[in-house]
């Protein structure tokens, strides 16, 4: 009797998991009140001179749930450090509000 060879595997086969992991609970959305939104606008307004000193600018646009939308213009448009600046704004707002918020730049332009 001739032994038949098994076909060669051309792809890596990983062991299959039995049973799906339990889904993580989704935290409830945070809704900011009028006083918190006013504080956000004040904090961003206080940051503007720092941006303007470097030829850029930042303006408060709107809030949706716990997401703060800002408009960055001037030298901030296309700047490689814009993401770092947005992260700094986010940290400052979280410190002022004592709540987690997300800062998202919208409609960036030359101004």
TrEMBL record:
One Pfam family this sequence matches: NifU
Top-level taxon: Bacteria
Database matches in InterPro entries: FSCA_dom_sf (IPR034904), NIF_FeS_clus_asmbl_NifU_C (IPR001075)
Region (Disordered): 1-27
Residue stretches in coiled coil: none
Gene Ontology molecular function: iron ion binding; iron-sulfur cluster binding
Listed GO biological process terms: iron-sulfur cluster assembly
Domain (NIF system FeS cluster assembly NifU C-terminal) ranges: 41-103
Full protein name: Fe-S cluster assembly protein NifU
